[in-house]
């Protein structure tokens, strides 16, 4: 799931860089996030595990969304990257433990 989030964010960031869209917003929903580009294009919804949803609700208390280019978006992106790194380390530690 975290890899899907990272891939979707990279896709939308590339769209901004390619000037296909001007910006996008990540909206925090009850059990998901939705990446919504500026304009009339349909967004992309990603369902979240409860622990990640809880982290976002705590970390972004009183924020319903973050917009690309903002400090809050940079913080959100850093949090997602850190979560992905931790997930990979845990997976690798599990593999190493099983090999012993």
Which SSEs are present, and which pair or pack?
Elements lengths: L1 H16 L6 E5 L3 E6 L6 E4 L2 H10 L5 E3 L3 H29 L1
Antiparallel strand pairs: 1-2, 1-4, 2-3
Helix pairs in contact: 1-3
Quaternary structure state of the chains depicted: single chain
Helix content: 55-70%
Structural class: alpha+beta
| Rg over CA atoms | 15 Å
How many beta strands in the DSSP annotation?
A: 4
What does the main sheet amount to?
Answer: 4 strands, antiparallel
Termini gap = 28 Å
Could you state the order of secondary-structure elements as H and E? HEEEHEH
Describe the protein in words.
- The chain has 100 residues and is of the alpha+beta class.
- It contains three helices and four strands; from the N terminus they run αβββαβα.
- It has helices spanning 2-17, 50-59, 71-99, and strands spanning 24-28, 32-37, 44-47, 65-67.
- The longest helix is centred in the C-terminal third of the chain and has 29 residues, at 71-99.
- It starts with a helix and ends with a helix.
Descriptive labels:
about 100 residues, 4 strands, alpha+beta
Brief overview:
This protein has 100 residues and is of the alpha+beta class. It is 55% helix and 18% strand.
